[in-house]
Amino acid sequence: xxxxxxxxxxxxxxxxxxxxxxxxxxxxxxxxxxxxxxxxxxxxxxxxxxxxxxxxxxxxxxxxxxxxxxxxxxxxxxxxxxxxxxxxxxxxxxxxxxxxxxxxxxxxxxxxxxxxxxxxxxxxxxxxxxxxxxxxxxxxxxxxxxxxxxxxxxxxxxxxxxxxxxxxxxxxxxxxxxxxxxxxxxxxxxxxxxxxxxxxxxxxxxxxxxxxxxxxxxxxxxxxxxxxxxxxxxxxxxxxxxxxxxxxxxxxxxxxxxxxxxxxxxxxxxxxxxx
Amino acid sequence: xxxxxxxxxxxxxxxxxxxxxxxxxxxxxxxxxxxxxxxxxxxxxxxxxxxxxxxxxxxxxxxxxxxxxxxxxxxxxxxxxxxxxxxxxxxxxxxxxxxxxxxxxxxxxxxxxxxxxxxxxxxxxxxxxxxxxxxxxxxxxxxxxxxxxxxxxxxxxxxxxxxxxxxxxxxxxxxxxxxxxxxxxxxxxxxxxxxxxxxxxxxxxxxxxxxxxxxxxxxxxxxxxxxxxxxxxxxxxxxxxxxxxxxxxxxxxxxxxxxxx
Amino acid sequence: xxxxxxxxxxxxxxxxxxxxxxxxxxxxxxxxxxxxxxxxxxxxxxxxxxxxxxxxxxxxxxxxxxxxxxxxxxxxxxxxxxxxxxxxxxxxxxxxxxxxxxxxxxxxxxxxxxxxxxxxxxxxxxxxxxxxxxxxxxxxxxxxxxxxxxxxxxxxxxxxxxxxxxxxxxxxxxxxxxxxxxxxxxxxxxxxxxxxxxxxxxxxxxxxxxxxxxxxxxxxxxxxxxxxxxxxxxxxxxxxxxxxxxxxxxxxxxxxxxxxxxxxxxxxxxxxxxxxxxxxxxxxxxxxxxxxxxxxxxxxxxxxxxxxxxxxxxxxxxxxxxxxxxxxxxxxxxx
Lengths: 275, 261, 335
Prior knowledge:
The complex is a heterotrimer. Chain A has helices spanning 14-34, 37-62, 73-107, 111-114, 120-125, 134-148, 156-182, 184-187, 191-201, 213-220, 225-236, 242-273, and strands at 67-68, 71-72. Chain A is mostly helical. Chain A has a two-stranded antiparallel ribbon with strand order 1-2. In chain A, strand 1 and strand 2 (71-72) form a beta hairpin. In chain A, helix 3 (73-107) runs antiparallel to helix 6 (134-148) and helix 7 (156-182) runs parallel beside helix 12 (242-273). Chain A is globular and about 60 Å long. In chain B, 79% of the residues lie in helices and 2% in strands. Chain B contains 12 helices and 2 strands, in the order H-H-E-E-H-H-H-H-H-H-H-H-H-H. In chain B, helix 2 crosses helix 6 and helix 7 runs antiparallel to helix 11. The longest helix of chain B is centred in the C-terminal third of the chain and has 36 residues, at 224-259. Chain B is globular, with a radius of gyration of 19 Å. In chain C, the strands form 3 sheets. Chain C has a 6-stranded mixed sheet with strand order 5-6-7-3-8-9, with helices on both faces. A 4-stranded antiparallel sheet of chain C has the order 11-12-10-13, covered by helices on one side. Chain A binds chain B through residues 42, 45-46, 49-50, 53, 56-57, 60-61, 63-69, 191-192, 195-196, 199-200, 202-203, 205-206, 210-212, 215, and chain B through 18-19, 22-23, 25-26, 29-30, 32-33, 36-41, 43-45, 49-50, 127, 169, 172, 175-176, 179, 182-183, 188-189, 193-195, 198.
């Protein structure tokens, strides 16, 4: 068996390696899920039902008005679509990975991730996919498209800003889930915390400015679902200024850094405690 | 017999305090979300939508939240779990129908969460300046109405759960059920505000009789004669699901034992 | 003089645990006054391991073997002392170090259960950046050595415990490490699988020259694989040297357990066969000098005839050997 020399190695720069790994994680899971076709089909049908009924709810509201707090129907549909894009992203890769992470902590199998020559945080938080949730994201995109068809004058700037804001939304949800799951290092079972997260997530279906003060603040900071969903929709509907977008990007980076630090803190306590 | 179960459940409940509070939050957060939305809609139309102004909406959703908590039934989910794990068999062998356990568990949970919920709802009420049109007659009618609603939620949930005897895909079925309830139970809008065809459907389906009807009775949003009619509707649906449950259960147990527990 | 692969000096690990007794009163007291106790899992050990050695860490449960391994693999920071493996400080977990080592834990799985092992190998190839050709060669060789041909394409959850262990081994060695830490690798496996795993480890060491440290509380693991053994008890290093010397010097006996049909109360005559250690419910346990054990066993079977329901001849439990090492007790065994 050849002992590998230092020169010959796969993979180029770091980001390329990590992207390749992500693709591998995704493909492996995809192969697995494709074997259960009936399951896939049922999941997709469920997603359609959920999305359709949510659109129906918005339509009921808009049967009585044309504008809700400054949002017209097109903008509202874009918002709802963004909600399902962000939520779908969470269910696509974040939730499966964090569930698996909590299981690793419980069983003591987290150690293996620590001993690989790749970032442990990456290996743990972006490892597991639930590919069928792509359908949720897809439907979200469809709803966004429907909403956009009712909005005139969408320029390149708005489109770019929208994508940036959406990516920030994904980043914010990542940071939130990362922080929540860190509690698993100390409390092992954080199902309750996750349930709390879920119930607040639901508030993302409406623009964050609709809510009373205290809830609005919560949804913009502690549980940033409000910001993650509302801002992209605002951008594409032409309501956000560049300064606000810049603040969002900074905020996302800050949240990511803080949450990662917190997670590493938990990791230190985990390795220190295990015998 | 119920007393012994009750004591055991109260002891168990005290251990799940945090979890109970969290579940209770479920019954608050969604109504608050839709309340905020309707307030925004009303404000855009001069403060009134149909027979509801902002204060009416507040009162409605507060009542809905209360009713939602009082009618919550989750035992069905546990049941599917138990069937899949094969933990059901020992319970079937005991002389006590498994449903008694869940009745007691259900009631105890509601008793423990009603006080914190009421406190939260008082705050919401003050924040939105909710106006209740309740009269003593309404209060009197509310008691049987919410009891019927809770029983209806309970048995319909169990009918769904019993499907676990035949299929592992109960999750899909309950998603459809939940989403139908989302539209027709009075969550996204008070039933009176649902557009024509939807409103007609909602009166024909059981969902509205679980949430919307008791909520409106408590709020005083319907006249007493109408309330009595709606309660009659609740009774009809309860009877349907009550007998449906026992039928389906018997068939299911036979199926289960035939396949091999 | 060759550079040591593993160089450990005065390594220490102390854990703080809350000391709580049973009972309601103690629970209430502990709310107010948390008593912390320091547990010396590893209390200052020193040793060196040269390239290509297969060294066994022997010791009863809780002796500090796993803790030592965790420090050497980089999972734990020591409380004091130094260690270097392949020239790296393990707990810094530098990528260059992680690339060349592996940790395999007997009762813990690193593979994803729902997918075939082959897919997990592919992921590992990517993680360790193994060139295609080398990857293929390694996988082929491991498959052949461990007889994995039919196993790698089945989802891991469908494999039996033994099969899973083999596949875990392969996964742990995909990157062709220079150092392998094996923690209780045969735990829970049936005898035949234990033998196969041991044979594999020996062969792997022979072919690759990888340095192997393994911990076990099964004497047989160590006997089969390790020329050198390090005995750890209560965090201290009690013995470091050739295996052959340890067993023979410290516990030169076998344990014979005879189960009788008629209840052993009356069987005082078994004294002639060996030192009677215990007598309970028709079972008599004897200690017999290693050399004469086969002959004594044969005589017992012969003499007791139909009175004998069952008989077993075993090595002394490792705890006894350790006890002896610790107390340096030398018992006279009846000849």
